[in-house]
Design a protein that fits this description.
The complex is a heterodimer of chains A (about 260) and B (about 775).
Chain A (H helix, E strand, L loop, with lengths): L4 E3 L4 H9 L4 E4 L5 H6 L7 E4 L9 E3 L3 E5 L4 H6 L1 H6 L1 H8 L4 H6 L2 H7 L6 H7 L3 E4 L3 E3 H4 E3 L2 E2 L7 E7 L3 E8 L6 E10 L2 E7 L6 E2 L1 H7 L26 H20 L1
Chain B lengths: L14 H5 L15 E7 L5 E7 L1 H4 L4 E6 H6 L31 E2 L5 E7 L2 H8 L3 E6 L25 E7 L2 H9 L3 E9 L11 E7 L4 E6 L4 H11 L8 E4 L15 H13 L3 E4 L2 H7 L6 E9 L5 E13 L27 E9 L13 H19 L3 H8 L8 E2 L5 E2 L4 H11 L5 H10 L3 E10 L7 H6 L8 E7 L5 E5 L8 H13 L6 E4 L17 H27 L7 E4 L2 E4 L5 E3 H9 L13 E6 L8 E11 L4 E12 L6 H21 L30 E5 L17 H18 L9 H15 L1
Parallel strand pairs in B: 1-12, 10-11, 14-15, 20-21, 27-28
Antiparallel strand pairs in B: 1-5, 2-4, 2-6, 3-5, 7-15, 8-13, 9-10, 9-12, 13-14, 16-17, 18-26, 19-20, 19-25, 22-23, 23-24, 26-27
Helix pairs in contact in B: 9-10, 9-18, 14-15, 17-18
The chains are: A alpha+beta (about 260), B alpha+beta (about 775).
Chain lengths: ~260, ~775
């Protein structure tokens, strides 16, 4: 690990100021990606702005029709929240399936979606449930937030403060684990929302995406049998030693079917 | 028998210490004034080194020294050795390349060692390593086992044409070919035994220290065999003379074979500590372990079994290409030859066998012994052939084995491939395993799975292994460069408690417990009063260490022999004190008594008399401290039958092991709890090989693709079912404990059992690891072929 300047601000404003004042600063949320990256010397930021002391980024608020999660809320807290489970069980279950207990006790929702790892779980929740990402500057719709591999709509120095999830009529997340890393080789969130059926896929492509062919097929009802004639194109999907694009495309349909059955049943 | 004697499930003495963080592993060791080492490694699979500029690194903050292969060669250190000579079919000796600990003019795999950077702190060493400028000419590389010896493959060592180390054979090809010509049916199979990365929990590490006053050197190292390490360091690498070098292998967190060998890092660290006159610590990062620990397996094999009309095996023919990596590691040459082909008879009466093995070099980390070492590869070949033969002949897989087992009255049984098996009861183990696995209920379970859209399959594996590698003369005749005896010392202290100094080494096996049980049982002293000391060349007698499931069969026998000497001397002391003739003294339960009387003396009292010899036999040496060296009469031959039952999800290709049954013959068992733990761990590793693990190098660049746990899939608890274990012991007549060894069996038996189950489920052949992707692709191909 290379040396860096360490900051621990107490407010969003101070955090933003610290980042703005740095030559090549980086926010540190749960550190579950950044710390290993630093240890492997694959990143060398001049400054780390640790967000763990910013209390306004913490916490879960459930109102009648939405669940708002502070950016620095740990996965374990979302997984354990009875309020979240009561409102959006699929979201609590997804958080409880991220990584291992150590990761869940450190990792945060803000850190996860800001990093936008192609195999992370939370992007599927944000996109599939049609959430809104709130930052210190604006609110960003999920469909506009994830722009590419490890890329988001966040601007330089822009800090996620919370994520608001509208409560869906039904939703379920199914993950097929990478046998080595246990990240999502394919993860599919199927949700029936006020705006229709949404199917968000993580792990399969360079960035989380909506499977429109599956959304159309499921529009008439959440059931795997509705997917019988549907197909997912392998074009542009990831290829590695664990899965070919064709296998990933196949798994998207299988996992979507299982999620549909679980959500619909 | 004492509560903690032989056969009891005694809780491990060492666990309290390990589980409460009181273990003493390499990284726990720090010496005053210690500096830290970091290695500059090759980023290329194959490259010429034009020059190494260390000036910027040497000037970096905190740097003590930056040393290269040039300086090492100038000091006369090395090269690293391979201790087993194999000869090719034509009688020529194997081609062994120069193996400098630090490369001089060429690097041959990604991770190969170029320089050692020593600095005040670890981070300084690492920072400085980035400043070492190596001028490379990158060359084309070859990492593929099957392609290494192909025409036009990139040459790795200029003096070794075709990248061929040896082209070895065992058996009479003409006789075997003749038998094949008369076969009723021939089953043939192409198989890959996938390359594995050992992944011991504790990475390799070394702390080296030089005392300029005495000129003594001390090396703390993660070794399975510290005396052998010292011998190699002194006799071959010239780092220090044997009597001035102390090698200490403290608590070591797993080895699986990978810590048998003497590597570049501890050699360079020890050498550098004297050059800079400071203690130096080196601890591998996990990514360095992936790159440079000796890997395991990596065979490409074509095998055939010839049968008569009754499914009786009449001949077997095996052709294997074995990947040895870029250099020959310490025992690499023996693993795919004498530890492999000599096990191809399995548990069967196959009368004639021919095996040929081409050992090839590739631009990969060296390959050497890994849990089972050659024997898992042999069992995989034999048991997959046998299972397929049964299916092709329309026989039940259990029945074809029954028809071919070596019968109980045939022991000792000489196989056509070197070994003479001492004893066994193969049919009994099979029947017990079938019962444990509820084999009779299989058809109903398959039907039930089918109704749920799943594919269920069962696979058998009737394995044999050769443990306790020995006797020394036989090992020597086969090309081994060492004797493979073991040594032990039993030291009664004047107060009657006992220190056992053993030449073996425990890195997870539980010797502190098992050996104490043996000594407590044999000498009638309280188990709590027996302390086992291993892993320090300045303490115990020279020993050969722990590998090949040899510790109890060979090391335990040495302990028994030393105990016999203690009893023999004790009888003399007791006879004198009890005023009886030595012949009238009987020893039992820790007491020396005069036969037919109530006159007796406890062994503790005898020990005290030996150290305070006021009333003592004339001419007898004081002290009760005996050392024994034991050279075994033969290998031991554990065997058993493992049965795996799997369910495959055709929608995803996921294989779920529903049930796993293992019946093993380890001979007598000292501590069933520890042995069952060994079986569990071995099966976990075998399941890892069968379903998850596979080392992958990039074909073009030679980069290690599976260089971290992100891509190298280790087995986890939820990949395994609860394992049903049965013991079916036939005590070995060839050693005093009647033991056979249990460390490797699980890893030997399980890959074939699991893959046989998968092929049964999916109705098609598949190579390891049977990942979801591969299973799905295989099902698709089978479906396409059927349409």
């Amino acid at each position: 690990m290379h040396d860096f300047q360490y900051h621990k601000p107490g407010s969003v404003a101070d955090a933003a100021a610290a980042a703005a004042g740095a030559e090549d600063g980086s926010f540190l949320a749960g550190g579950q990606t950044l710390i290993p990256t630093l240890k492997q010397r694959l990143a060398a930021p001049s400054d780390l702005v640790d967000l763990s002391g910013v209390s306004e980024l913490q916490g879960i608020t459930v109102s009648g029709d939405s669940v708002t999660i502070g950016a620095m809320t740990r996965h374990a807290d979302v997984a354990a929240s009875g309020d979240v489970a009561a409102a959006i069980l699929a979201l609590a279950a997804l958080a409880g399936g991220i990584g291992d207990p150590q990761v869940r006790n450190r990792g945060t929702i803000g850190g996860s979606i800001a990093n936008n790892d192609p195999a992370a779980d939370y992007p599927a929740a944000v996109l599939g449930l049609n959430a809104t990402v709130n930052t210190n500057k604006r609110s960003i719709a999920a469909d506009d937030f994830f722009t590419g591999m490890f890329e988001t709509a966040l601007e330089e120095g822009e800090l996620i403060t919370s994520v608001s999830f509208p409560v869906p009529e039904a939703a379920n997340y199914q993950k097929f684990h990478n046998p080595a890393s246990r990240y999502a080789l394919v993860g599919v969130m199927v949700a029936k929302t006020g705006g229709g059926v949404r199917v968000a896929v993580t792990g399969a492509g360079p960035c989380v995406f909506r499977a429109s062919s599956l959304e159309q097929a499921l529009a008439g009802g959440l059931s795997s049998s509705a997917l019988d004639g549907a197909s997912v194109s392998a074009d542009g999907l990831n290829s590695d030693i664990h899965a070919t694009p064709e296998y990933r495309a196949h798994l998207v349909k299988v996992m979507a079917g299982r999620a549909a059955d679980a959500a619909g049943g | 028998m004492a509560d903690n004697g032989i056969g009891t499930r005694t809780v491990r003495k060492e666990d309290q210490r390990f589980l409460t963080g009181k273990g003493n592993y390499l990284d726990d060791i720090n010496r005053p004034g210690q500096a830290y080492a970091y290695f500059v490694r090759s980023p290329y699979a194959n490259a010429k080194i034009n020059g190494v500029d260390t000036s910027a690194a040497a000037a970096a903050p905190g740097v003590v020294a930056v040393l290269t292969g040039q300086e090492m060669a100038a000091d006369g250190i090395g090269p690293l050795i391979c201790g087993w000579m194999i000869s090719s079919k034509d009688g020529s000796p194997m081609n062994a390349p120069a193996h400098p600990a630090l490369a001089v003019d060429k690097v041959n795999y990604v991770g190969d060692h170029v320089a050692i950077v020593v600095a005040d702190t670890y981070n300084q060493a690492k920072d400085a390593a980035e400043l070492v400028e190596v001028d490379y000419d990158e060359l084309p590389s070859v990492t593929d086992t099957a392609g290494a010896a192909a025409a036009g493959a990139p040459q790795i060592h200029a003096d070794i044409p075709g990248n061929i180390c040896y082209d070895w054979e065992l058996g009479d090809k003409a006789v075997v070919d003749e038998a094949f010509s008369k076969a009723h049916h021939v089953t043939s199979l192409d198989m890959i035994n996938n390359r594995l990365i050992p992944n011991a929990m504790e990475p390799r590490a070394a702390v080296a220290e030089y005392d300029p006053g005495t000129e003594d050197m001390t090396l703390y190292t993660t070794s399975q065999n510290p005396h052998v390490c010292r011998l190699i360091m002194s006799a071959f690498l010239q780092v220090a003379p044997e009597h001035k070098l102390r090698v200490i292998a403290p608590d070591v967190g797993g080895g699986f074979g990978s810590k048998i060998f003497v590597y570049a890092e501890e050699t360079a660290t020890l050498w550098a500590s004297r050059r800079v006159n400071r203690p130096i610590k080196w601890v591998a990062e996990r990514s360095e372990s992936f790159l440079s620990d000796a890997h395991g397996r990596d065979h490409v094999t074509h095998a055939e079994m010839a049968m008569d009309e009754n499914g009786k095996f009449i001949a077997m023919r095996v052709s294997t290409i074995a990947n040895l990596g870029a250099y020959l590691s310490t025992f690499a040459s023996a693993v795919p030859t004498y530890l492999y082909a000599t096990l191809l008879a399995g548990q069967y009466t196959t009368p004639v066998i021919y095996a040929e093995v081409k050992g090839v070099y590739t631009n990969t980390s060296p390959v050497d012994a890994y849990r089972g070492a050659g024997r898992p590869e042999a069992t995989y070949v034999v048991e997959r052939l046998v299972e397929n033969a049964a299916r092709e002949m329309g026989l039940d897989p259990a029945e074809i084995r029954r028809r071919n087992f070596i019968p109980n009255d045939a022991f000792p049984y000489e196989t056509p491939v070197v070994h003479t098996y001492d004893c066994g009861d193969y049919p009994k183990a099979l029947e017990e395993a079938l019962k444990l696995a509820d084999y009779d209920g299989l058809a109903a379970r398959k039907a039930d799975a089918q109704s749920r859209g799943k594919l269920r399959g069962v696979g058998l594996s009737a394995y044999i292994e050769a443990c306790g590698i020995a006797p020394s003369a036989a090992v020597g005749a086969l090309g081994g460069g060492v004797g493979l005896w073991e040594a032990a010392q039993i030291r009664f202290n004047p107060t009657g408690n006992v220190t056992v100094l053993a030449g073996t080494h425990s890195h997870g096996q539980g010797h502190a417990t098992t050996f104490a049980q043996v000594v407590a049982d044999k000498l009638g002293v309280p188990y709590e009063n027996v302390e086992v000391v291993e892993g320090d060349t300045d303490k115990g007698p020279f020993g050969m260490g722990t590998y090949g499931s040899r510790s109890i069969a060979v090391g335990g026998s040495a302990i028994m022999k030393a105990a016999d000497k203690i009893i023999e001397k004790g009888k003399k002391i007791a006879a004198h004190a009890l005023e009886a003739a030595e012949e009238d003294i009987e020893f039992s339960g820790g007491n020396f008594s005069v036969a037919g009387t109530d006159k007796a003396m406890n062994i503790g009292e005898v020990a005290f008399a030996a150290y305070v010899p006021h009333n003592y036999p004339e001419g007898l040496e004081p002290g009760l401290d005996e050392t024994a060296f034991y050279d075994p009469l033969n290998f031991s031959f554990p065997s058993g039958v493992h049965i795996a039952e799997v369910e495959v999800d055709p929608d995803t290709g996921v294989v779920d092991i529903i049930k796993y049954s293992a019946v093993d013959d380890f001979g007598n068992v000292i501590n069933p709890m520890i042995v069952e733990g060994q079986v569990h761990g071995g099966i976990a590793q075998g399941v890892g090989q069968a379903l998850l693990e596979g080392c992958v190098y990039d074909d073009d660049s030679g980069q290690l693709v599976t260089g971290s746990y992100m891509d190298y899939a280790m087995p986890r608890a939820d990949d395994l079912p609860s394992i049903d274990i049965g013991m079916s012991p036939v005590p070995s007549p060839l050693n005093p404990l009647g033991v056979k060894g249990a460390g490797e069996a699980g890893a030997i038996a399980s890959p074939a059992a699991v893959i046989n189950a998968v092929t049964d489920a999916i109705g098609a052949d598949i190579d390891m690891p049977a990942t979801p992707l591969k299973v799905w692709q295989t099902l698709n191909s089978a479906k396409a072929a059927a349409e």
